[in-house]
Every structure is written in structure tokens, then in C-alpha cells.
Amino acid sequence: MLKNAFLISISLLLCQFSLSATAAKNQLPHIFYVNIPVQTQDGVGQVSAQYRLPRSENPSPMPAVVILHNSGGVDSTGKFYAKALNNSGIATLELDLWGARGLLGGTDNRPESPQETLPDVFAALHYLVEREEIDAERIGVIGFSWGGVLSMLTATEQYMSMTGTPYRFAGHVAHYPLCWVYNRVPGFEFDNLTGAPVMIQTGALDDYDQPETCPLMVSSLGEVEKDLVELKVYKNAYHAWDRLEPELLVTDPTSHLGTGGEVLLSPNKKIAKRSRRKVVNFFQELFEEN
User: Fold this and answer.
1) By three-state DSSP, how is residue 117 classified?
2) CA 191 remoteness from chain centre
């Protein structure tokens, strides 16, 4: 009788612990909207962002990930990953690269090149480094399409040396980042990496590349760079598979290996969940090591 009562008490305690842990995990993060000063060639501008800070009783500084949208601008994609990262105890800072520029987004209302928006990414990194609740050594970046290009470029010393500071991202994730441009188009050199790991996720049906484009790009890297890069190609994924919104057909001059043409943005919930799980695991393992 006493043994049964003891077992029941232990079961109740474990149940309460499990419920408390689940409740803490599902708590909404603190959400702030911030304007970050950006140093540009024309002076000082700004970039706006949504800053999501997980609720935690742990006083230690937490890791963070900068989120960079696609050509269309801020949509559901960033939040899809932000919520999962927040539930894992990782803060997120999702930038709006178009707002301060007065751009509507899309392939016909964006800057001339991703390089024009690199100062925004540098500013976001510096903003997080200076936050006392953030661990400056554990800041990563994830980008989608246009943002994926930025994530790739900021993995190189060629661009990060322009910041004039020692700050670097701890890890980079790039989703469908137009693999055909790297080490083929001037300004898109992907070499002399900072030493941080890079994970690329792309789709075999992506209209910007061909199924073999990303694998060939990675295989052409030097041995040091190759060891830093992980590539995942989803067999049945189109461009923007994790943009869980209605299917969309757009025209982009940078598609089809740079010859231009139509691009299908087609969501795939199953693959999106898989890719999100890989992203969370990538950053969790990275931040545990640092």
C-alpha cells in the first residue's frame, strides 16, 4: 500500500514537472520592435526589426539568430522559424530590409544587389553583441533567397572585414541562396571563410538553379571551406518551400542560372517541418559547443 502511494506521488510529481516544462516552452516570448542605426556610404540610416526574447529564469546570456527575409519582404517564413528557435531558448532578430528604403519588395522593387543590404546585417550583429542578455559569442544568422545570399556572404572574411570589428557570426544557414552565382559572378566570392559552419538547404526543383548546381558549388570549394559547409537538397522542393502561403509564380532576371524567367514559389509543409527541425538542431548543437 505504501509502495503504491509512493509510486503515485512520484508519478504526480513527474506529471507536474512535465506540464510545467511544456507551459514554459509554449510561453510567448517578449516581443519588441526596434530601429537599429545603420552606417552606409550616404551616412547613417536605420533598419527596423522584430526582436523576440524567450522568457527564461536563467540569468545567463542567451544565444540569438538574425533572420533575413527573401525578395518579397517579411512574410510568414521568418516567424515559422523564429517560434521554433524561441521555444529552444534562442532569441531572434528578424530584419525588415525594405521598410526604411521605402521599397515594397518583389523582384521589381528591391535594391540592385544584396550587397547594398549588407550594412543592415552588420548593424544587426553589432546590436545583439551590445545587448547584455545576449551572448556575443553565440549569434547566428539564417536567410531565405535574398537573405540566404546575405547569410553566405557574411560567412566570408571578404565582407566581414569591412565591419572593422572582430565580431563574426557563430554559424550561418542559407535557404535556396542561388548557388549558381558563387565564385562565378564578381562580388559573390565564397571563399576565405570566417571559420563558422554553414548549412545550405535547397530544393532540386528550384527554378534559380539546377538539381546539381548546389552540390557542384560545394564540391568545387577548397578542402578547408568544404569541411565547413553542410548541404541538404530536398528532392521534391521548389524555391521557398517553407513559405507556407499560397503558391506564387514570379519572374526574376536572376533565375534559371542567370538567364531569367519564371519562378514557382510552392509551399511544402512536410519538407518545411523537416528543414525547420534541421535548423533548430544546427543552432542548438552549435551553441552548445561554444
Assistant:
1) helix
2) 20
Strand partners, 53: 30
Backbone angles phi, psi at 273, to 5 degrees: -65, -40
Do you know the residue count of the chain?
A: 290
65, 139 in Cβ contact below 8 A?
yes
Residues of the chain short of pLDDT 70, as ranges, are 1-26
- Sequence-distant (≥ 6) Cβ neighbours of residue 230 within 8 angstroms: 197, 198, 199, 200, 282
Q: What is the pLDDT of residue 26?
A: 64
Rounded CA separation 251/260 (Å): 7
Q: Looking at domain 30-289, which of 1.10.150.130, 2.60.40.10, 1.20.120.340, 3.40.50.1820 is its CATH number?
A: 3.40.50.1820
Kindly report the pTM of this predicted structure.
0.90
- Please give the grid coordinates belonging to residue 236: 521534391
